[in-house]
Amino acid sequence: MSSTPIDNAAIEARVKALLPAERQLYAERRPKARAMAERKGKGLFDNVPMHWMLDWPMPFPMVIEQASGVHLTDIDGNAVVDLCLGDTGAMFGHGPEPILEVLRNAGHRGLTTMLPSADAEIVGELLAARFGLPHWQIGATASDANRFAIRVARAVTGRRKILVFDGCYHGAVDDTLVDLVNGRTFSRASLLGQVVDLGETTIAIPFNDEEALRNALVSGEVACVLAEPVMTNCGMILPAPGFHDTLRRLTREHGTLLLIDETHTISTGLGGYTMLHGLEPDLMVMGKPIGGGVPVSVWGMSAEVAEGLDRARRARDSHGHSGIGTTLSGSALQLACLRASLEKVMTSGTYATMAARTDIIEAGLIKAIGAQGLPWHVTRVGARLEVVFSSEPVRNAAEAREAASSVIEEGLHLSLLNRGFLLTPFHNMILVSPALAEAQAQALVAAYGEILARFCQAGEAA
Ligand SMILES: Cc1ncc(COP(=O)(O)O)c(C=O)c1O
């Protein structure tokens, strides 16, 4: 145990000095990936299929040869244990066997017809039983599902505005890409090609702020509050005791619908945070791992919202585009994967394994942080863990931003990667798949402990 308390500024200084060697090691082990990154061809923009793959805290992206269970192998032959899991898309492990089985057979039955397949009825029943809401629709991504659910909320309530919490991320959904700056809501400064002032129809308030919520809803203009039950895209911010009760009570009082986005908090356990904590949303969205890694999302509605949607559809003058749905949504392939996922992958046994492994990692990280006397803590929602660089839990995005350090994040990320563990980029999230073995959980804890000790060794970095 260090005798004098260490602060984040001192750790940042040490990490800065350690980073060049970690970057060099990463690069030395990946000559093929480096050559690919340096080739400027005519095809993919910057040789990646999606531009943000360049934003990871790696000198250049590792290029994946194979992903299976919890293992990634890159084209240079490096093997790593995956704790990012495609930022939740592969939360149940890469290629769960029931999904592979569907994929082996699905093509022969037809991939997409723009008509329901025989799985539709059973999938609807499974979703209703698992997540509590009676009516469901299928999308391709969680971004899509959020967009459609917002449109439904506006159609049903006849209101223009929506409310989100500062620091949120609900996908590439224009209405939600806002920041709270000096008490006002603005389009997020980083957006590309943004021409509409999103602050005109979206209100952002701090998470856990009951007074701000009350003040925002009182005008009666807000169609829905869109919220993750635990904020997971700005570090990890837990709801204060009673906050969800207040959120539900105030939204009901003001005729505002409650739209819960469980895309990440589906890590909580069977039925998501909603079922485990008795939330009562009017609308609910999930994507990413729900189809076992195949592009599927779902959005559910209460009976009242579904009736309102019916009324709104009937009241239209024309039968043209509704703005809800995409051509490949609700396809036979998606329904088959959803069914296999709900019946055979997302089971109580799976969640029990995830929880047991996460227990090991949580206890180990707390011990490792304590051993160095670091002013940090660990937050958790089921199989999702976040190391936060503050001694006290953060209550909102402003506090989360204050606690964040991109330097320490990069240091942790690269040091762990060089020891065979892949973290989620842009924060310190560890996601635990059921494929992670107990020994791997223990090895991660040991590696984390060694890295923290290195970060805290006075003089080493000089
Ligand atoms: C809470 C939440 N909702 C929705 C999304 C959007 O998911 P997708 O990019 O798969 O559309 C994300 C993506 O990170 C998310 O974190």
From TrEMBL:
InterPro entries: Aminotrans_3, PyrdxlP-dep_Trfase, PyrdxlP-dep_Trfase_major, PyrdxlP-dep_Trfase_small. Its cofactor is pyridoxal 5'-phosphate. Pfam families: Aminotran_3. Gene3D superfamilies: Aspartate Aminotransferase, domain 1, Type I PLP-dependent aspartate aminotransferase-like (Major domain). Keywords: Pyridoxal phosphate. It comes from the Bacteria. The keyword DNA repair does not apply. Transmembrane segments: none annotated. This is Transaminase.
